[in-house]
Amino acid sequence: MTAGTEQLRTRLHEMWAAVAPAWAAHASYADARGLEIGETMLDRTGPVSGERVLELACGPGGLGLAAAARVAPGGEVVFSDVAAEMTAIAARRASAAGLTNVSACVLDLEDIARPDESYDVVLCREGLMFATDPARALLEIRRVLRPGGRLAVAVWGPRDRNPWLGVVFDAVSAQLERPVPPPGVPGPFSLSDAGRLEQLLHDAGMTGVAIAELAVPLEAGSFEEWWARTTALAGPLAGILATLPDPVVEGITERLRRTTSAYQTGTGFEFPGLSLVAAARAG
């Protein structure tokens, strides 16, 4: 790994640590937003009692909390994230829910510090697309899965089919007159090509690869509600906006008021959304 790549990984890790308080504040919203995606991932992998599950890039841990119920009694769910601040949120939520079959640790999905063949199921919702080397990450996932173990990964589909976030990157890019995220920096749409995602899974030695498109529209009661949540939770975006002068942020906001008007309804806003949910087995 080059020094530049290592520095990029460090910056990405710091970025997610910085937005952890916002994810804690919006954990219930994140659970609701990801509910259908998470249920699809669990249905595709089918964790059962007694099995060990690893959730990578867990954030506030909503998916792992749901998995914990499926593997009880006798099973275990491990929450993991590159940011200790995120795993702490997941651990607190598990404790509040009275779950005793969970644990939390800091793990990088590109360098999973766990023994070979440790888990029956690995889950990664909206994390793989931020890996600096997704091929390496999938090889690591394959390594820690037991033979026949199951994997489910969810990533965002094409940018133009996710205007709830795509329009923001368009507006920031236009205002700054440069691409956002910059070339070489993984962003939320870096794995939006289903064909590329499928090939990465095959190259990692996974079998039975199946990728499904899942419509996940986003609703908000007002422009302000949508914009506040988006700026709080979108890690790369939050980091960029935090460095900009107020007049620039105001210019971006005004652009977005115009571009989002197409998604306004009688009760607020409704944006289309599309997730790619990939399931596979360790050969």
Write the layout of secondary structure elements.
Elements: H1 3-25, H2 27-33, H3 35-45, E1 52-56, H4 62-71, E2 76-81, H5 84-96, E3 102-106, E4 119-125, H6 134-144, E5 145-156, H7 163-176, H8 194-203, E6 206-215, E7 218-220, H9 223-233, H10 235-242, H11 246-259, E8 264-265, E9 268-271, E10 274-282
Parallel strand pairs: 1-2, 1-4, 2-3, 4-5
Antiparallel strand pairs: 5-10, 6-10, 7-9, 8-9
Helix pairs in contact: 1-5, 1-10, 3-4, 7-11, 9-10
Can you walk through the features of this model?
The chain is built from eleven helices and ten strands. It has 283 residues and is α/β, with parallel strands linked by helices. The protein has one domain: Vaccinia Virus protein VP39 (Rossmann fold, 3-Layer(aba) Sandwich). Helix 4 (62-71) links the parallel strand 1 and strand 2. Helix 3 runs parallel beside helix 4 (62-71), helix 7 crosses helix 11 (246-259) and helix 9 (223-233) crosses helix 10. The protein starts with a helix and ends with a strand.
- Please state the structural category: alpha/beta
**Helical residues, percent:** 40-55%
Low-confidence stretches: none
N- and C-termini, Cα separation: 27 Å
CATH fold-level topology: Rossmann fold
The averaged pLDDT comes out at: 94
Provide keyphrases for this structure.
alpha/beta, 283 residues, Rossmann fold, 3-stranded antiparallel sheet
Question: What can be said about this structure in brief?
Answer:
The chain has 283 residues and is an alpha/beta fold. It has a single domain, classed as Rossmann fold (3-Layer(aba) Sandwich), CATH 3.40.50. Helix content is 47%, strand content 22%.
